[in-house]
Fold:
Amino acid sequence: MNIKRAKQEIRDSIEAYLSKDEFGEYRIPAIRQRPILLMGPPGIGKTQIMEQIARECGIALVSYTITHHTRQSAVGLPFIVKKNYGEEEFSVTEYTMSEIVAAIYNKIEDTGLSEGLLFIDEINCVSETLAPAMLQFLQYKTFGNHKIPDGWIIVAAGNPPEYNKSVREFDIATLDRIKKIDVEADFDVWKEYAHDKAVHSSVLTYLEAKKSHFYKIEMTVDGKSFVTARGWDDLSQMIKLYEQNDLAVDQKLIGQYLQNEEIARNFAVYYDLFRKYKSDYQVDSILSGTAESAIKTRAKEARFDERLAVLGLILDAILSELREVMQTENVMKELLTLLREFKAAALNSSREEAQEFLNKQIETLRKQLAAGKDSGSINDERRRELMLTARILEEMSAKIADKADGNAAFETVKEIYDGRLQAMKKAAAEAGTRLSNVFLFCEEVFSGGQEMVILVTELTISAAGAGFIRRYGCKEYFRHNKELLFHERRQEILREIQELNLE
Structure:
């Protein structure tokens, strides 16, 4: 199965394992909760889905790559204790707490979350000395003398033998005690993730045309040659940073992430063309509806790979704007909740009391950010939203420093909020117009072509694109995609937008 389906399977297992009866006991006792084993090629996103699952389920995550451990760090160090059995005293070996088990208790203390995931990567690549301890761990959920706490679910990941010659086969007794899920690389599933992560459009358009280059591992006379989803993701991040800093992206850099010489060379050539298209096609003019006829003519007459690259540039630009609008709206919603509380505290109070209330809210947000960072419970988008919310509250706190009383402080805060709300609505309207211009350009240039299908599909699978259209509408989108009836909720959503007003 693909990684998306595997993620859902794990989530369903977690829901079942953590369900409790009327007495607060787990319906499936911890000892009977089978560890989940993900088997699949390296670099397809096994670690990433663990982070996503932990965030979405509101549980903690402790992650280890077991090949980095010795038997001593995993099991604990031995020490001698004296014990009496009957009338005789014996020297008995016991073990200090495993570093891995200790990490779980530290995570519980740091986050306040008593339930979580223990993720062990590369579990079938352990050393010979550690292998028996791993089998004991999978069968009995113990390292040495110490048991994994109840409420913690074990998920392990391993690579099939064809990808790693050092793997160890599990015996039947172990396999009979685990829940095994086989995972395969799937570009279409990864693409959904890529849109949400804003993977560089050169990567997405290249892989759209050459899906066979998405994941490839083979043996050559020079050794292993491979390209993985992780490699594409990391390369995308580096390309963005290189572009921001005006650094050259060349085949040498690309080959550091795509360790297949042919694919690295092909993508390097494509990337150079992609950069040229970005300059030639003046994407901002397309979004503003002012594209010259020469640009339209060139796009009409271009080969499919060039048309696909141009479409990627357009999508990258418009989705960036839609993503910004949706993020701003989330911040405004966050602010609205906080400022309604502020209103109740500020009216008929002193300026000092009003300011103290705001400062406490800022402190709470900072603590939430710190806790989320430590626990891994917030993603990059949520982190940015919290930081923006805190920054606006800091601006408000500074603006009310010289006000006479809490009433005046609230009016100042309301003025700042209303100004930002109007700016958000203006940005949303402008983004909507630019989205319509994208459709008008594509209808004229790519009429009846596969490009229109790709445009609608990409907007649909993108969280930012789908979210914006669902909230603000786009008649051109609905005309091309009648199956998705987002517009049925339009009136309800407009009412929700009106409720953002701070009264």
Remarks:
- The CA atoms of residues 136 and 394 lie 53 Å apart.
